[in-house]
Amino acid sequence: MKALVEKAIHDLAPLGAEIFEISIPELVNAETAVLVVSGAEGTSQHHENLLNPTLRHMYQEDVRIQLEAGELVSGVEYVKGQKARRLLRDGFYRAFTKVDVIVAPTVPIPAPHFTPNQTKLNFEVLNACTPFTCPANLTGLPSLSIPVGLTMEGLPVGMQIFGKPFAEGQLLEVGYAYEQISPMKDVVAGDRMLTS
Description:
- It is a single chain.
- This protein is α+β, with helices and mostly antiparallel strands.
- The protein folds into 2 domains: 94 residues, no CATH class; 75 residues.
- It contains 7 helices and 5 strands.
- Strand 2 and strand 3 form a beta hairpin.
- This is Amidase.
- Belongs to the amidase family.
């Protein structure tokens, strides 16, 4: 997986990209911040439904448990989570003074197998993927995930591109440019064709 994403990053160079390695130290607190902040905010949106015995049963058990966990977030924890969110945003803004976009793996593991009747969250997958997907959720920055290849089992591997605030056009241009040279451009996935 890592090799596929690294190759995709290097494939951007002939398209005019200059590749720089950057560091955003504030990412270390992102996962905790998203659990606290998103947990509390998600719970606040569903609070009345969770209290209503008629509506409460409409939530899948695993989703309901996550939402109920949000009830346990204290005001102090929420404020600390918001501070970590601001610091993370500031870290990305600082990085964007040096680069136009930030490219990283979408998730660190291959896409999990999916069954048509799957209704339970896979917490192992969720825990592995959250650190990679939560920065965009926390900061509100635009991001785009595009396939860059397939694992040996035929499961997709993705590359995530983060853009500056309100720079969705530039983000889409980078994604589109990569798609034109992507090895996934004409790959058959299951019984449908992936095309750009």
